[in-house]
């Protein structure tokens, strides 16, 4: 039986004596593609940071690829793109290609050198994100959207088995946003990468991901979008209109509730 990519058991986290997360339990399997959503202040980014070991202490248990997080050492299996990345200093000396290549270093033992295969992989990823022509450009000279694409490339260049991206498309134009989600779809479908996308855009995330994890300090819902659309309990919790806002993109599904389209 395959080992879960991630298991979270009865997780709680407090910050300044306030409960941010309470009694969180769920698991993620290979090939899952999850939209992590919830209102502002619901604990989405905190949950991600606790899962990645960036925030401590907490109550509960977290395992990654079957190992307790305290003993986990294969961080090269995980790609992470954090939220609200500050613009890079114009004097930062690294080029686009060099920043993306940094994403390969976690898989290398000392001394860490790039070989021909590594450089070819950097070129391939830059080509996917329409950045190859900027490979030798200092990252500090790029626009905010271009810098975001560079950091997306760095997160996926090492072919992670588990990828977490927090509000990844905020700085991207519509064309590049569509390309980003095409890349995510390819990683998920062809390579079975487990993906979690943190977003406030509940009205559109159903276009892309197959599962919804709705968090508001605790888990409100975790399951397929089809189940979300047809759940009477969710209708009672959110109200019919709010439920439809989240699931209306699945309008090929006759079970989705009718109503006006909306945005979050």
Structural topology:
Layout: E1 6-15, E2 18-28, E3 33-37, H1 44-51, E4 59-64, E5 67-68, E6 78-81, H2 96-101, H3 116-128, H4 144-156, E7 162-166, H5 174-191, E8 194-198, E9 211-215, E10 219-224, H6 225-230, H7 232-238, H8 240-247
Parallel strand pairs: 3-8, 3-9, 6-7, 7-8
Antiparallel strand pairs: 1-2, 1-4, 4-5, 9-10
Helix pairs in contact: 7-8
Question: Could you give a short description of this structure?
Answer:
By secondary structure, this protein is α/β, with parallel strands linked by helices.
What does this entry look like structurally?
The protein is an alpha/beta fold. It has helices at 44-51, 96-101, 116-128, 144-156, 174-191, 225-230, 232-238, 240-247, and strands at residues 6-15, 18-28, 33-37, 59-64, 67-68, 78-81, 162-166, 194-198, 211-215, 219-224. A 6-stranded mixed beta sheet has the order 6-7-8-3-9-10, with helices on both faces. Strands 2-1-4-5 form a 4-stranded antiparallel beta sheet, covered by helices on one side. Strand 4 and strand 5 form a beta hairpin. The longest helix has 18 residues, at 174-191. The radius of gyration is 19 Å and the shape is globular.
